């Protein structure tokens, strides 16, 4: 689904210096699987997620998305790619507090310019994540786990090919974290979605079909463990 070839990312810092956040990263992300990018805070895993999710571009190297080289595409093309083929789930669920659960998901469909039946799709997604009876509740009336389920429904609503999830379980307890992971696996099986997530939670490693470890901006090989 996605391939990176010798990706590096360098950020300028004060005094004319620079910081190399990623160093020569080459990975392959298979279709319809759960790929985990594992690493400590500051390891570079979120930087890598942003690059393969078309939120950022590498300083060098190539990124291939579903057979297309997206390394040098324009900002407008990146926006279109994200709108049509990509969904995001973040550590902070960022639900709009003045909107109901239903309205939060429906708003995401409007932003993505979804051309189908929005009402039907919203209801389908909320039933899929087990919130069919909570559509008219406000975000503050939900538990942390339920809010994350809304974020998942919102991310899958426009029928993306890939979901990128950045530390989606960081604010959840262990039981709820494993519930979210089971939901990811169900989405892969039933919706044919590819999911890439970052985490530092070692208890979740066994759920990944593919696990890459990022350490100090470098890809740590299995033989390095």
Question: Please, could you describe this protein's structure?
Answer:
This protein is of the alpha/beta class and 225 residues long. The protein has a single domain, classed as P-loop containing nucleotide triphosphate hydrolases (Rossmann fold, 3-Layer(aba) Sandwich).
Topology, please?
Layout lengths: L1 E11 L5 E12 L4 E5 L6 H8 L7 E6 L2 E2 L5 H11 E4 L11 H11 L6 H11 L15 H13 L5 E5 L7 H18 L2 E6 L10 E6 L2 E3 L5
Parallel strand pairs: 3-8, 3-9, 6-7, 7-8
Antiparallel strand pairs: 1-2, 1-4, 4-5, 9-10
Helix pairs in contact: 3-4, 3-5, 4-5
Sum this structure up briefly.
This protein is of the alpha/beta class. It has one domain: P-loop containing nucleotide triphosphate hydrolases (Rossmann fold, 3-Layer(aba) Sandwich), CATH 3.40.50.300.
């Amino acid at each position: 689904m996605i391939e990176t070839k010798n990706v590096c990312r360098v950020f300028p810092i004060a005094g004319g210096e620079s910081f190399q956040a990623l160093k020569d990263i080459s990975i392959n992300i298979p279709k319809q699987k759960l790929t985990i990018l594992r690493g400590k805070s500051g390891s570079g895993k979120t930087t890598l997620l942003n690059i393969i999710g078309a939120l950022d571009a590498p300083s060098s190297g190539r990124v291939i998305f579903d057979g297309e080289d997206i390394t040098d595409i324009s900002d407008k093309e990146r926006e279109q790619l994200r709108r049509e083929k990509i969904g995001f789930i973040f550590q902070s669920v960022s639900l709009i507090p003045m909107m109901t659960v239903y309205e939060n998901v429906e708003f995401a469909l409007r932003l993505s310019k979804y051309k189908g039946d929005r009402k039907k799709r919203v209801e389908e997604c909320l039933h899929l994540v087990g919130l069919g009876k909570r559509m008219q509740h406000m975000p503050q009336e939900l538990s942390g786990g339920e809010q994350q389920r809304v974020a998942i429904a919102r991310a899958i609503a426009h029928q993306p090919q890939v979901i990128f999830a950045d530390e989606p379980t960081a604010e959840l307890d262990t039981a709820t974290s494993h519930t979210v992971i089971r939901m990811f696996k169900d989405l892969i099986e039933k919706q044919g979605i590819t999911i890439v997530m970052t985490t530092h939670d070692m208890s979740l490693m066994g759920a990944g079909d593919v696990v890459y470890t990022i350490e100090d901006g470098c890809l740590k090989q299995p033989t390095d463990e």
